[in-house]
Amino acid sequence: MIGSLHGRLVFKQAPMLLLEVGGVGYEIEAPMSTFYELPAIGEDVRLLTHLLVRDDAHVLYGFGSAGERQLFRNLLRVSGVGAKIALAILSGISVEGFAHCVRAEDAASLVKVPGIGRKTAERLIVEMRDRLDEAPAGAAATIRAPAGPARATDEAYGALVALGYKPAEAARLLRNVDTDGLGAEDIIREALKAAAQ
Q: What does the alpha-carbon distance between residue 67 and residue 152 come to, in Å, rounded to a whole number?
């Protein structure tokens, strides 16, 4: 199992990033909560990881905090929740926000995450109640890199589609965001906030 990686950030386009460690490039998928905290291309970054072995691929997931990784692992144990939905949950709700939704039995907030229907939200509430205490808290913030306006909007659009939003829905969310002076991560954050309302 690969527990963490520390290396140079070579490429990032949500939800995928490339981390070079000792001359080897690792493709890593990460939630938007981790993307928000990534440093500029070429800088060093440390991520906690989870290796998911499937019949057709070995996929490496990266997280900026132990709480995110633990929640991801716990979500994978819920019936009907795969890695894509787990990433969408971490991208749309903080670890603390998710815990609040489960404790308050707030299925309505969970349904706002793409890929989560009413039944899945209710299953998450029931199955995650006992697992919430397993998730340690904390995240280390790093410096973010600004991007050009048009490129940033394109990156944000691609990230929203990769997170499960339909292309038309992603475009609608981005139309409601004032993108002037914002980097891709900030545009995505604002679009996800709008989607959650």
A: 28
